Amino acid sequence: MVANKPLSGKVALVTGGSRGIGRGVALQLGENGATVYVTARPTDKQEEFTKNLGISNLEKTAEQVTKRGGKGIAVYCDHSDPEDVKKLFERIEKEQNGRLDILVNSAFAGHTEVCLHSGKFWERDPSLFAINNDVGLTGSYICATYACRLMVPKKKGLIVTLSSVGGANYIFTPAYGVGNAACDRLAADMAHELVGTNVVTVAIWPGAVNTEYMKYCVEQNPELKSIFETAESQEFLGKCVVAMATDPKITDKSGHIVTTMHLAKEYGLVDENGEQPKDALIEQQEEHINFFNSTKPPKTA
User: Fold this and answer.
1) How large is the C-alpha radius of gyration of the chain?
2) CA separation (Å) from 108 to 111, 140, 241, 282?
3) What is the CB-side half-sphere exposure of residue 286 using CA atoms within 13 A?
4) Are 120 and 170 in contact (CB under 8 A)?
5) What kind and span of H or E run contains 74?
6) For residue 123, what is the DSSP state?
C-alpha cells in the first residue's frame, strides 16, 4: 500500500458495492489507499434484472480496489438478514483488530419494484414498503449500530448513509420517499447520541447517476433519457466521501444532509467530464436542506 495516499491504513466498509454507486465509492476509497470491505447479496438472492444483465461482480470490484492502490475484500452478505450483518462486523473486528474508520451504507433492494412497476400505492402489494426499506433503511440502522461499537471506543469514524432528494420531493412511490426521509432522520438523530465521540454521521444525496440500473431504466423508459444526459459518474460520490473522510473539520457536518453538488463546490471537486454536477431537484430543496441542517446537535453534550 502506498504510504502517501490519504486513506492509507484506514479501514472502510461499503455495503452494496458490487455495482453502481457502491462500486464507485469502493474504487475511490481504494484509490486513496484504504482497505475496503465490499458487500453484495449472494447470487441466488440478487434481483432478477441484476442476474439477467450480469451487472453485479463483487470479486471484480474487490480486485479493482486493490489495483487502484488499496486492499479490496469481497464479502457476500444479505443485508436483509441481521445475523448475516452481525457476522460481517464480527469478521471485520477480528481481521482489523477492532478497527473501522468509514462505513458507507449504499445497499438498497427493490429497484425494479420501486422504479419500473406502475400503479398507485394502493393498487400495489403492501409488501412494496418492506421490499424498499428492509435493506436501505433497516439495514443501514443495523450496520450503523455495529459500526459505532467499533468506532466509539476509538473516538473516530465516519458513517455515510446514501439517501436522495426523494426524502423531500415526491419520486417514484411513497415507500421510496418515506425510506429516504427516514435515512436523513437516521443520520441526524444518530448524530445527537454521538456528540462527544468524534464519530460523524451524514446522509448524502447524489443527483442522477449513470449506474447500470439507471441505464437499464432509460432503456425501458426512453422519456427518462434527458434526466441522465448530465448525470454524475458512478465514482463522483466516492470522491465526495474521500474528501469528507480527509476533512479535519468534518465534525461540523455531523447530523447533516450533504449533497454531491454542494460538496463539489466546497472541496473543489470535478467529475469525469471536468465539470461540477448540478441537479435541478436538489436546487429546489435548498430551503429544506438548510432548515434540516439547522437542527444539528450541539458540539458538546
Assistant:
1) 18
2) 8, 9, 18, 21
3) 7
4) no
5) strand 71-76
6) G
Contact 35, 12 (CB under 8 A): yes
33/4 Cα distance (integer angstroms) = 8
Q: What is the pLDDT of residue 99?
A: 97
* 1: confidence class by pLDDT, cuts 50, 70, 90: very low
- Domains delineated in the chain: 11-294 (3.40.50.720)
Type of residue found at 43: T
Write out the three cell numbers for 263: 460538496
* Distance in angstroms (rounded) separating the CA atoms of residues 66 and 83: 28
Residue type, 245: A
Q: What is the pTM of this model?
A: 0.91
CA distances, 229 to each of 59, 166, 193, 217, 232 (Å): 30, 20, 41, 14, 9
Bridge partners (DSSP) of residue 205 are 259
Terminal Cα-to-Cα distance of the chain (whole angstroms) = 38
Residues in the chain, how many? 301
What's the pLDDT tens digit per position in 58-116? Answer: 889 999 999 999 999 999 999 989 999 999 999 999 999 999 999 999 988 756 666 65
Q: For residues 182 and 133, give the distance between their C-alpha atoms in angstroms, rounded to a whole number.
A: 9
pLDDT tens digits for 103-123? 999 988 756 666 656 778 888
Active-site annotation, residues: 176
Q: Which of 228, 222, 259 is nearest to 243 (CA)?
A: 259
Q: Are 116 and 219 in contact (CB under 8 A)?
A: no
Among 263, 245, 256, 2, residue whose Cα is nearest residue 101: 245
